[in-house]
Design a protein that fits this description.
This protein is an alpha+beta fold. 27% of the residues lie in helices and 30% in strands. It has 9 helices and 20 strands. The strands form 3 sheets. Strands 3, 4, 7, 8, 13, 14, 15, 16, 17 and 18 form a 10-stranded mixed β-sheet that branches. Strands 1, 2, 9, 10, 11, 12, 19 and 20 form an 8-stranded mixed β-sheet that branches. The model is unreliable at 143-147 and 363-374 (pLDDT under 50).
C-alpha cells in the first residue's frame, strides 16, 4: 500500500495525478466531490474495489457538517417514534461494525440515562421503545460464540430514583422518578474522517483538500470531468473521470446546477447547535437524553467536557458559515436547566458550534419543519456521468458510500463488490 500520511507532498502528487487524467488512458474511474464523512467513505469504497479514484474538498477534510456533529454513533432512538424501523436497524448494524471492527480506537461505548417522569406508565412506554432498540441491535450486530450471538453493548436497565442519582448526582432530584439506562457510542468525528481519507490514499486514491470545483466538463449531455482551482496557489486544472460523484451535503443543489439542469435532489439545510461546558460543571458519570417538544437534547460526556445539544431548525442563510444565535444558545440552556440541579449560565459556556444537516426535502416542502424530514439517504443522477447522494447520517456513511459507488458502476458493481 501507499504511504497514508496526508502531507503537502501527498497533496501535490494527488493534484499532479488529477491533472494527468487528461492524457489518453489516464482518465479516473471516479472523481468524488466533497471531503466529509460520506465523500471520504466513497473514496475508500471505490479505491478498495480497484477503481482509480480522486477526491477533492474545497476546504479541509470534515470542515463542514462532519466535524460539527453531536459526536454520536447511534441508531437514532427517536426514529422509533416515527416507526422508521429500517433506518434504525441500518444504523444499529453500522454502530456494531464501527465499535467492533472498523474503528474501535475512535468509537467508544457510552451509557445514557433516559429520565422517567412516571414510574409506571412512563416506564412502560419508554422501556418498550428501548427494548425494541436493544432488540434490533441484538438481531443485527454482535459476534457468535458457540452458536450464540454475543451483544456488543449491554442491555438496558431500569434504575430507581436512588440509583439514578448515584449515576448522575447533578440531576435535579425532582426532575425524574427514575431512569432507563441504555448504551450508544461517541466518536471523534473529524479524526474519523481524516482516517478514512488516509486509508483511501493508502489504497491508491488521490485526495486533495483546498481544491474547489469551479465547473463541470461535459461531452454533449454527459459529464466527463470537472474544472478545479487549487485554492493554495490559484492554479486551475481539469480532471477527466468516467463518473463524477457529488457528495457535497448542503451544497448538493449548488453542485448539481453546474450540470446545467434543474438537478435531481433537493436538500434542506437544518441547523444543529451545541454548547460545550467543562466536565466539572455538571456532576454526572453518564450521558443524558431528554425529550423536548420538537426533538431531543443530549448531554454528552466528551473528554474533559460536556457537549449539550442539539437544535433542529431550517437554515436559509449562507451554508458556508452557519452560526449559533443567542436564541439557539438560550434554547439549549433552557432545556438542559430543566433537569439540572445547578442551572447553567452563559458564563459556564466555553465554546459552541453550529453545523448543517443535509436533509432530503419531500415532494412538497409543507410547513418546512426540518425535524420531520427523514434522515434516509437517496442516490440519483442529475445528468449522465454524474451521481449525487444526499441525506443520511454520520453513523451510516459506509452504507451511503456503497450505494453511491454501486449506482455509479451500474451492472459492473456485481463484478466489483465491496
Amino acid at each position: 500500500m501507499i504511504d497514508s500520511r496526508l502531507t503537502s507532498a501527498s497533496r501535490a502528487e494527488a493534484l499532479e495525478r488529477l491533472a494527468a487524467s487528461n492524457s489518453e488512458g489516464q482518465e479516473l474511474d471516479i472523481l468524488v466531490i466533497g471531503g466529509g464523512v460520506t465523500g471520504a467513505g466513497i473514496a475508500l469504497d471505490a479505491a478498495t474495489r480497484g477503481l482509480t479514484t480522486g477526491v477533492v474538498e474545497a476546504q479541509d477534510w470534515a470542515s463542514g457538517t462532519s466535524s460539527k456533529s453531536s459526536k454520536l454513533i447511534h441508531g437514532g432512538l427517536r426514529y422509533l417514534q416515527m416507526f422508521d424501523f429500517k433506518l434504525v436497524h441500518e444504523a444499529l448494524v453500522e454502530r456494531g461494525l464501527l465499535l467492533s471492527q472498523i474503528a474501535p480506537h475512535l468509537v467508544k461505548p457510552v451509557p445514557f440515562l433516559y429520565p422517567l417522569h412516571n414510574r409506571v406508565f412512563g416506564r412502560a412506554y419508554v422501556e418498550t421503545g428501548i427494548s425494541l432498540y436493544d432488540g434490533l441491535a441484538s438481531l443485527s450486530t454482535g459476534t457468535k460464540v458457540r452458536g450464540q450471538r454475543r451483544r456488543i453493548l449491554p442491555w438496558h436497565t431500569y434504575m430507581g430514583h436512588h440509583r439514578m442519582m448515584e449515576r448522575f448526582p447533578g440531576l435535579d432530584p425532582k426532575a425524574a422518578a427514575g431512569a432507563i439506562q441504555y448504551w450508544d457510542a461517541t466518536v471523534d468525528d473529524a479524526r474519523f474522517v481524516a482516517d478514512l481519507v488516509r486509508t483511501a490514499q493508502a489504497y491508491g486514491a488521490f485526495p486533495a483538500s483546498r481544491t474547489q470545483v469551479s465547473g463541470l466538463i461535459k461531452d454533449g449531455d454527459r459529464v466527463v470531468g470537472a474544472r478545479l482551482v487549487d485554492l493554495e496557489t490559484g492554479t486551475k486544472l481539469e480532471v477527466r473521470a468516467r463518473t463524477v460523484i457529488n457528495s457535497t451535503g448542503v451544497w448538493t443543489d449548488t453542485t448539481e446546477k453546474l450540470t446545467g439542469t434543474d438537478g435531481s435532489l433537493k436538500v434542506l439545510a437544518s441547523k444543529g447547535v451545541h454548547i460545550v461546558v467543562p466536565r466539572e460543571r455538571i456532576d454526572g458519570r453518564v450521558g443524558l437524553i431528554l425529550q423536548t417538544e420538537s426533538s431531543v437534547l443530549f448531554i454528552i460526556p466528551w473528554s474533559r467536557y460536556w457537549i449539550i445539544g442539539t437544535t433542529d431548525t431550517p437554515w436559509t442563510e449562507d451554508v458556508t458559515h452557519p452560526v449559533a444565535t443567542a436564541r439557539d444558545i438560550d434554547y439549549v440552556l433552557e432545556q438542559a436547566n430543566a433537569v439540572l440541579a445547578r442551572p447553567l449560565t452563559r458564563d459556564d459556556i466555553i465554546g459552541h458550534y453550529a453545523g448543517l444537516r443535509p436533509l432530503l426535502q419531500p415532494g412538497t416542502t409543507g410547513d418546512g419543519v426540518s425535524a420531520k424530514i427523514s434522515r434516509e439517504h437517496t442516490v440519483a443522477s442529475p445528468a449522465p456521468g454524474m451521481v449525487s447522494i444526499a441525506g443520511g447520517k454520520f453513523t451510516t456513511y459506509r452504507v451511503m458510500a456503497k450505494d453511491a459507488v454501486d449506482f455509479a458502476l451500474g451492472e459492473r458493481a456485481v463484478r466489483l463488490p465491496r
